[in-house]
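note to self: dont lose this again. the chain is below, predicted strucutre after it. 523 aa total, dont forget to put it in the shared folder this time
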Amino acid sequence: MSSRPVPKCNLRTLILLFSLLASFVTLFNDLYATYRIQREALVRNSLEANRAYAAKVALSIGQNLGADLDRLNYSAKVLGQQFSSETIRSEEVRRLIEQDQSFNTTVVANAQGEVLAAFPKLLNVKGQTIRFKEALTRRQGMISPAFNSLAGNLIVFISQPIWGPGGEYLGLVGGTIYLREANALSEVASRHFQWDNSQVYLVDDKRHLLFHPDASRIGEVVGANPAIDALLRGESSAAHIVDSKGVEMLAGYAAVPKSGWGVVSQQPMSVPAAALRELMYQVVLRVIPMSLVGIFLLWWAAACISQPLKRLADLAENMDNIQDIRKVRAWYFEAWRIRRAMIMGRLLTQDRIGKLNHQALSDPLTGLANRRVLEDCLRDWELLDKSFAVISMDIDHFKRVNDEFGHDAGDKVLQAFASLLRQNCRDHDVPCRVGGEEFILLLPSATLAEATEVAERIRRSMAETVFPPAGHVTLSLGVSCWVPNQQDVHATLKEADELLYRAKQSGRNRVMCQGTAASATTS
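---
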């Protein structure tokens, strides 16, 4: 009789405890699923909102810049007819400023870049040479990146060439936008923006900040930033990024037409995260009352279920012989189900034992036979005097795969090679993994020529296969054959290993066999 103490926990308590555990696990899973779904929805909505706003701002800025170019183009045509008139030049630069306040300053320069007229005159830049030389050389409507003007201001310069009546290039007319002062760009970028802790900024094709909510950052060159990198590639989209300050952001970005600039509208991840926490708090508050009702129902159900099963347990305790489960008189439905479950449990246990035996004889990563199976096969075939061939294989430069791409990538290469090995061997062959990247294929009743052909087929398949992310990976192989009464089987294995090392020393990606050496390069 067992000396163990009688358990104090009865069936009713167990049912209640396990039911509560299952309920709490289910509740936790539901809450977690709700959290994940709502988080993805909030992130997706925030990304789309930022993308749409960035596109709206980019379009507005593009339209403003286009209008500026059109106004300058009109002035260029007027100036081209009377370019030598100082009065006309002065009137045009004044009109451009007073027309709609798009520019902070305007200038007219000749073909050499010398400023002939400027407004306001307080700038005192007349006679100086403009710094944006590219507008003079390209002789077309242009929008510059940010640079420091003659007066020392950080500006963007928008210009149009002036052509004379005969088609000769006379110079240019241009307007500047002071980036560190209130301007048309900042007005468009900040208009109607209502999201808390959100920000919009404008960059040029040289990564200069043309507008930023933090005015001190205007003119700053932005470092590594996935959104700006995408903009410079001409892309417009949205992404979950980490900005140059290390802050997790939900960013939408869009290119500004005609300028090479880009608009980024971004929101800290902490904003939707805070909204999500509040949402989950409300969900939990509403779940608690129903959870209490559920606990009461579980207690009542446990009492109902345990009563008939307790009676069955009492009957089982009074039975003289309980070894044979099939002889139990299952007159009660719950007892019949328990008896069936016990029988199925025994069958399942046997099945699991079989699986455990299989696992003990196989490599857990590749599913190939392990060294124990290898030794058993060699012992059995030696006793039966059954000839066989051995192919010893080693993946070339496998350490480099692990070092460059990580051990997870290396494991995937090993698994893919195991699959390739199964495809290229016969049903009764025994593929084994005996080390990190070392494999052995046993071919019962195979001749040396047949084994060499199989080895070459494996090598070729390996060389032609692409193993993401490692790419092409090659294989070196050594082939040996054992014939009864000639040598010890382990000597054959050793010989195959030595041939493998000869293949490695001869340049890898080749097959070496007994007596001869066949080589191959990567196809």
